[in-house]
Amino acid sequence: APCARGGLPSPSSSSSAAPDGMIRRLRGHLGPVLCLAMSPDNNRLYSGGRDGTVRAWDHLLGDAGAGAGAVLVMAGHAAAVCALAVDAGGKRLYSAGADNVVRVWLLADGSCLRSSNLFALTHADATSYFGAPQRAYSHSFAPQHKVYGVALSRDGRRCFAGCTDKDVKVWDTAAGTLKLALKGHEGPVGAMAAFHTSSTRLLTGAGDATIRAWDLERGRCDCVMEGHSGPVLAVVISSDDRRVYSASSDQSVRVWEVTFIEGAVGAFKAQCLRTMGNCHQGRIVRCLAISRFVPRRMCWKMS
Question: Are 165 and 140 in contact (CB under 8 A)?
Answer without folding.
Answer: no
